[in-house]
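For this section, I looked closely at a protein sequence along with its fold in token form, which I now present.
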Amino acid sequence: MNAPVADPSPVDSRNAFKLDSIPDHHYHLGNHVFVVVSEFFDSVKIHIRKYIQEMDYMKPTKDGTTLSPLTWQELADSMCIKSFYYANRRRVSLLNDELFIVAARNQEKEEIVLQKLFVKKDLSRQFMPNVISIDELQFNTLESYEKEITKSVFTKMFQVLFRRKAFTAFSKIKCQQPLPTTDCSVGKKFLTSTIEDLLYCEVKKIIFELLIENCSGCEENLANQLGHECVDMSLDMQLSRYFNKAVCKIDVKTLANTFSVKCALYKQFFTNNYFYELNFHDILNNVKELYLSNDLNVWTNSSSFEDIDF
């Protein structure tokens, strides 16, 4: 009796899936190109990758690129000017000093080529070997998924990474004071309001930094404040331009550590049930409302996690 023949290309169940059951945080751009948002240890990654179909399963190939949340947001912001990429096939862009984008013509078809760069120890730059090319239809699909992909990024950052880091931080805290005898709903409300305050304070600080960084008046050192976009820009416009970038730049580990210190006496309320009931997208919307109610004239760039008084 012949021995069974081994499958020459076994399906990796960790990354493979069927087209009729695409997992959460996976977005199909067409022609077997997917955007996948995942977390790995302490970071969130956005993969734009070509897949192949084997035995009814979709499996990732090496053709693709991996982005950080901030680089993804830079790409998302640039998609609104995609017409420039197709108007000039020689157009080249570098996003966040790590993603190289070029518009190219391949067999009479316009494509966008994405390739990562990394900085070597001698500060020279080198291309990563893997690239991904997407056509105009796939680029349009990517643009249509932009808000959903960003939402997935925030879900991974806070519902997954923050939760994990916060539980770890709480486990290291030994309270010397007696725990407060308070109602469970009151304790949970304190936890949620603390998260909102910490996020608001950090978002405000980062947006301020981004305003200064991107202000032509500050760059040219203009004496008249009327020439400074960082002063003239409305709060609505600040949120529109910089809110997502600010959230992407938040250090989740530092946020979790500070949160655990502020809420040490209430750590018994920080349970899996509490966290599963928590909706971070609602919290981020509340942060936006807090930001809009803020008076620009009282801004300082000194606000940070440590500056909040509870």
In short: Residues 1-12, 296-310 have pLDDT under 50 and may be disordered. The chain is about 45% helix and 25% strand. The first helix runs from residue 69 to 78.
